Amino acid sequence: MAISPYRSNSSALSFTCLSDNEILSQIYPTHFHVNEKLDVESLFIMAEKILNRSTLVVDNFLQQEQGTQATIEHLEEKTPKASFSPPLCLLKKISFEMQCKEPGYLIAHATTLSILNLLSRYSWDAKAVLTLAAFALDYGEFCLLVKIQSSEELAKSVGTLKRVPVLLKGVTMQKNQQAFIDLNKVVKTTLKLIKCIFELEILSNFDFDTIDVSELATVLGRIKLDVYWAITTIVASTTQLSSCLFFDEDKKQELNPFADKLNVILTELEKQIVICKEQIAETQDYRKLVKLFQTSMEITEVLHELIDPTNTMQPLIDGSTKTQVEIDVLKGKSVFLFISDLEISNDDISMLQKIFDKAGKEEEEQYKIVWIPFVEQLREGLDKEFETKRSTMPWYVVRYYLPKASCRFIKKQWNFKVKPLLVVLNPQGKMECENAILIFSIYGVEAFPFTSAKVKTMETDFSWLWSPIINANSEIENWIKEKKYIFLYGGQDNEWIQKFPEGVNVLVDHDLIKQKGISIQWVSVSESEGNKVDLECFWTNIESLFISKAQGKTQIDVVAREIQKLLSYKNEKEWAMLTKGSSVVLVSSGKVILKVVEEFEQWKIKLNEKDFELAFKDYHDEVFKDEQHICHHIEIPFKPGKIPETLECSHCHRIMDTYISYKCCHNDGAAEAVH
To answer: Where is the Sieve element occlusion N-terminal domain (predicted)?
Structure first.
């Protein structure tokens, strides 16, 4: 691109002739791998000191007629490292690039590219600080001569060569007064901008993921442009200083467009830095919480950090006495943290009341409930809504303004999304259950206190499977106690649903089955006529237990595998399950199991050496190998808790593909997402 000088009278036109993308396309090739070492902080400290005092000298000189003098005593300045050695030769080279240039944006642009090429192996903040320091060297020298040339003969002689005495003459100074006012303003703005750039570079060196500090990623993406404009403005400022010294009106640089551009950038950068610092502070607090929950041995310590890290209030309201109390009342207790928004359903209140009543019957009042209202956005009427809800609660309640880091912890570590959670912590602050609501929905209050040991006991007796079935037919409870073999079957194919019990009935009437005293029953779990099993409850239990079993697990156990198999058949044409008493023997395709039943003659000989369930399973596995496999789908409704990111197929053991779907039933409830 040909470069032509634009004078001040055409600066408005020239200042808009390059877009951001055009600028970036030209400055990208100037930057190479950073391998030059530089104490950027010490260099910036020195440049800042020089420019703070230089602009003060000029301000005081311009104001001396009014008899006012500013001081620099209020400034807090750092000290460079004792080992700092300034790169003087490099600063001289940069200064040389900027001297005696024609005014105009495109000339400043071309000069900036030359400087960027010179500094190609320095970081972007170092490029800006080096250019600033080179300008500070020249401007500082000029201001020093202004200050002492009348009292020092050496300064006077040097000043004469620099044309300072002529510049300071009354008429000449009046003529250049506005130019120096503009120059001083733009120097101060440039200094602020580069200070922001340097501060951002320091912030970027913190060990944070860009996901955690998203604003930092955004602003660092623009830092090259900001550095470009800082350097271009310094070049223009150098041109302005030269024009004043040479008294050349035609070569004066219009600085206002540069100042306006920098002010826009500076305003945005300052806002972004504030946001970055807030995000970094939040991330630090979040990491502290994560570490504390891993290492702490006291429930009150983790709750203090979660609920009231600043320790500025009595954070709990005792629902039974309606008084404010300290978190220390929970010392030595197991705590049920109920986390929800202010829209709490009657079912949730009923559940909490049952748990509260159960906890009250325990010795030494070992278990306590705490409601943590999860509110991220304040809105009108929140206080009234909160007071209405908490006034009916006999358990402990937390004020609804949780710290941001705590909200983040609850969402990321405990997987809170929309629906309520009931997190169980032991007296040491360790998690016993990530979401007791799932467990309660399956077993009810009988699973209290929802510890892993208690839940494991209830899982292995398969009560999660049988409760809705027993409710439909009380006789089944006796079959379970008598350890009878039971076929559960269901699916979408009504013809198969009718055919399956016919096949089982033939098996039951077989002489060998009768001879060996093998008792077999069957129960339909389908939408067929006459079925009394609550299908919604049945499948909800299966889904809830599946999610519960997935909490924090990388591998699934035997129970979880059978649950997964059952879920994979939920929407298939046919499925069946064989149990002995309450224990599941196998879950499989209804077609395969019916084939095993109908081909009893081919495997009955195995009953001479094996129990019925083992013989049945052996033949099933042979048949299953020969069957054409179908795709298996598992739909998991959106529920509180951690849904597995990957899932191994329970049949072929490959990793299953993952999809997201959405369903709307056209009611007032939220749509459910399923994986």
So the answer is: 19-295
Written as one letter, the residue type at 30 is T
- For 194, the token pair is 């580069």
Residues 98 and 239 in one domain: yes
Tens-place pLDDT, residues 20-61:
899 999 999 999 877 788 999 999 999 999 999 888 888 787
Distance CA 618, CA 212 (A): 53
End-to-end CA distance of the chain: 55
293 in a domain, yes or no? no
Distance between CA 39 and CA 84 in Å, rounded? 7
Which residue is listed with tokens 């490292």? 81
- As a whole number of angstroms, the distance between CA 412 and CA 407 comes to 9
Residues 6+ apart with CB under 8 A from 53: 72, 140, 143
Q: Where are the alpha helices (DSSP H) in 530-607?
A: 535-550, 558-568, 590-598, 600-603
Residue 242 sits in the same domain as residue 104: yes
pLDDT of 568 above 60: yes
269 touches 240 (CB < 8 A): no
SS3 content of the chain, % helix, strand, coil (to 5): 55, 10, 35
Q: One-letter amino acid identity for 131?
A: T
Global pTM?
A: 0.70
Return the closest-CA partner of residue 478 out of 581, 613, 586, 611: 581
Residues 6+ apart with CB under 8 A from 671: 662, 663, 664
Instruction: Please name the residues in contact with 106: beta carbons below 8 A apart, sequence gap of 6 or more.
Output: 3, 4, 5, 6, 14, 17
Query: What range does the domain containing 339 cover?
Result: 299-440
The total number of structural domains that make up the chain: 3
Report the distance separating Cα 265 and Cα 557, nearest Å: 57
SS3 367: strand
3-state secondary structure 39-78: CHHHHHHHHHHHHHHHHHHHHHHHHHHHCCCCCCCCCCCC
651 lies in some domain: no
Average pLDDT over all residues of the chain: 82
Cβ proximity of 389 and 342 under 8 Å: yes
C-beta of residue 362 within 8 angstroms of C-beta of residue 456 = no
Burial (CB < 10 A; 0-12, 13-18, 19+), residue 294, is exposed
What pLDDT was estimated at residue 6?
34
**Cα(420)–Cα(371) distance, integer angstroms:** 10
Burial classification of residue 413, based on how many CB atoms lie within 10 Å of its CB (0-12 exposed, 13-18 middle, 19 or more buried): middle
Q: What local confidence, expressed as pLDDT, does residue 130 receive? A: 97
Helix H, strand E, coil C: the string for 26-37 is: HHHHHCCCCCCC
